[in-house]
Design goal:
3 helices, globular, Rossmann fold
Length: about 60
């Protein structure tokens, strides 16, 4: 488990996962940016695309996200 987007991207660059759950409000690098960079990494390396989904925590839903 990663505590921010930078850690998530680093983990995905080192390991292969069946799926990735992204928080769109992660610190340092949000889930949108981390997912975009993951897609670039996958495309450049020829790896298959990792299924991913984004989630806005309770604070995001309360704010209307």
């Amino acid at each position: 488990m990663a505590s921010n987007g930078v850690e998530a991207l680093e983990a995905c660059s080192r390991n292969s996962y069946a799926a990735v759950l992204m928080d769109i409000q992660m610190p340092e690098m949000d889930g949108y940016e981390a997912t975009a960079r993951l897609r670039e990494l996958e495309g450049g390396s020829g790896r298959r695309r990792t299924p991913s989904t984004a989630y806005a925590g309770a604070s995001g839903r309360a704010a209307g996200a």
